[in-house]
């Protein structure tokens, strides 16, 4: 029996991979409702390894490029790509972003208008990352929880984990040296007047913004990156910067309702890369930072291979086809 502490992104992804390899799994989650206590409930749900490479190591691509395929077995994944734009005065930011990333092509104002008619005439140039995707994070957590249980794993919601577990995936509460919180603030806007179908990134030297469509006129906008352990509600400064940036993207956002705001702590190590570490007989998967949806699948596969080393690729394939 494999016991897992935490049914957030890392814990559920590991439960999935372990159940897939035929293990008996029990997951303990202190929160009562699937996803409700996970920092992932505030996430954008972007599966954007090529854009993220702008400020991250090459591993975000090597580990994250298959994430969309993994998630699409579990929950709807919107493979619409990412469109990166910048206001005319910040065009140098676009050149810099293009230099630091790959997997994109340049698009002009005509192509931007065809892709997203709501942005017609607003931006002269952009970068399009065709292979990127997004999902709805809360739905993804619920769907993954249901899938894992359908595969035979037990998830005990409302139950703090026992002291000794096989695998610890407790995010920011894990007792790991060097783990630090990076605060992220976000908002959800309701603006039925704007129709945008793919993830947009607005480059800005001070307040870069991303916007992820949630459907039904809702858009998640985010997110701040603050070295802080405070999980108090979003500050006025952060919210006004996010809203101003959304307004720069499209003036119709001036009439949007702010449907929700939130703030969460991303668990990160000094290099901002996830790690598997062993401590006192427990394996820890942590440090997913701002890449939980992107990197949890590959990291969970590594964790499962560590815990069930005798599984051969052939066994694995047989189980998948069974
Ligand atoms: C604003 C924001 C935007 C983001 N956007 C993206 C994005 O677009 N794409 C992306 O890939 N990532 C994104 N992320 C990052 C992603 O949300 C995190 O990387 C991920 O949630 C971390 O996963 P985790 O499993 O380590 O922690 P969590 O998801 O927080 O899970 C930890 C779980 O452990 C449980 N737990 C803790 N202690 C115990 C205990 N003692 N017993 C039982 N259960 C316990 C908690 O209740 C929680 O459910 C974003 C994060 C933020 C804050």
**What small molecules does this complex bind?**
flavin-adenine dinucleotide
Helix/strand order: EHEEHHHEHEHEEHEEEEEEEHEEEHH
User: How many whole angstroms does the radius of gyration measure?
Assistant: 20 Å
In helices, the fraction of residues equals: 25-40%
> Number of helical runs?
10
Mean pLDDT: 95
Category by helix and strand content:
alpha/beta
**How does the overall form come out from the CA principal axes?**
globular
Provide the β-strand percentage band.
25-35%
Describe the largest sheet. 9 strands, mixed
Quaternary structure type: single chain
Distance between the termini: 22 Å
Annotation, overall tally of beta strands: 17
Low-confidence stretches: none
Task: Summarize the helices and strands and which ones pair or pack.
Layout (H helix, E strand, L loop, with lengths): L1 E4 L3 H12 L4 E5 L16 E2 L1 H4 L6 H6 L2 H6 L9 E4 L5 H10 L4 E4 H7 L9 E5 L3 E2 L2 H14 L3 E4 L9 E2 L11 E11 L8 E4 L6 E7 L2 E5 L3 E2 L8 H14 L7 E12 L6 E5 L2 E5 L5 H16 L5 H9 L1
Parallel strand pairs: 1-2, 1-9, 2-8, 4-11, 9-17
Antiparallel strand pairs: 3-7, 4-6, 5-6, 10-13, 10-14, 10-15, 11-12, 12-13, 16-17
Flavin-adenine dinucleotide binds next to α1, β2, β10, β15 and α9.
